[in-house]
What we know:
The protein is mainly β. It has helices at 110-115, 239-245, and strands spanning 9-13, 19-23, 28-33, 61-62, 84-85, 100-107, 120-128, 134-142, 150-156, 159-161, 168-171, 177-180, 186-189, 201-205, 211-216, 221-228, 232-237, 257-271, 276-287. Helices cover 4% and strands 41% of the residues. It contains 2 helices and 19 strands. 6-O-phosphono-beta-D-tagatofuranose binds next to strand 17 and strand 18. GO terms for molecular function: carbohydrate binding; glucose-6-phosphate 1-epimerase activity. Keywords: Isomerase.
Amino acid sequence: CMGVNGLEKVILTEVRGFSAEVYLYGGQVTSWKNEHREELLFLSNKAIFKPPKAIRGGIPICFPQFSNHGSLEQHGFARNRFWTEDLDPPPFATNTTNKAFIDLILKNSEEDSKIWPHRYEFRLRITLGPGGDLMLTSRIRNTNTDGKSFTFTFAYHTYFSVTDISEVRVEGLETLDYLDNLKNRERFTEQGDAITFESEVDKVYLSTPTKIAILDHERKRTFVLRKDGLPDAVVWNPWDKKAKALSDFGDDEYKHMLCIEAACVEKPITLKPGEEWKGRQEISAVPSSYCSGQ
Ligand code: TA6
C-alpha cells in the first residue's frame, strides 16, 4: 500500500495483532508494533519520506559502507534506494511457516556503479514471527563478472523506542572493547556493569555476544536483540546538542530512543565473485520481569 509521499509500503500482520511496516524505499522497516498496538521502534516526528533522504528511525540498512569513513555517502546508498519485491528468491534458511514475511532485493544500478563499481544482489527477508519477534536476514552476493572481489561494512541501524533514555540499561556489552566515535575512534574498554546513559554516546563495540538486552525500566519492557554474522554492535544516542543539529530529529526526541546496531564494522567483509555473505538480526520485546537472563 502507499505510505507517505506516495512511497510504497508493505504491512506485515500477525493473528494476535503484532504488525510491522516496511517501505520499499530503503528496504526500511519503519514500524514494529506488539499485540497491544504499541509502537516498539522510534520514528522521528520530523522524519523525511523523500528520496534521497534516509528515513529517520525504524531500521535503516547501512550498506556497502557503515559511517562516513570511506568514499561513499554516510552509511552507504542502500537505505536511499528503491528496493523491489523478490518474488522468486532462492531458498532462505529462515523458514516462514505461519510467519508473515516479505522478500526484497536490491541490485547494482548504472548510477551506483559509478561510485561503487561492483555487481551484487542484496536479498533482504523481513519476517514477523508468531510471538511478534521481528527478524531481518540479509544475503549479499558478489555477482561481478570481471573476477573482482569487493569489500563492505554493514549495519542494521535499529532505533528502539524507549520511555526515558536516562532509565535504560544495556546488558551484554560489559568489559568489551569499543571504538569511541566521539574520541577519534580511539579504542577503549567498557567497565564491568550494565551500560547506562547520561550524555551523547556513539561507540562501536567489538566482538560482541550474539545476544544484547535493552532494559526499559519505566515500561517494564526488555528488548532482546539476537544476531548472527554481525560481530560488532554500535550504540548511539545523539543527546540534546546533536539532536538539535539534526533537521529530521525533534529537539527532545533523544530522550525516547536508543540505537543498538548489529554490525560488521571493525573487520570489513570481502566477497569473491559468486560468494555470499549472510547477516541476521532478530528483535523481540518481553516483559522485564522475564528479564534478560534468558
Ligand atoms: O549510529 C551511529 C552513527 O554513525 C552516528 O555517528 C550518527 O551519525 C548516526 O549514525 C546517524 O547517522 P545518519 O546518517 O542516519 O544521520
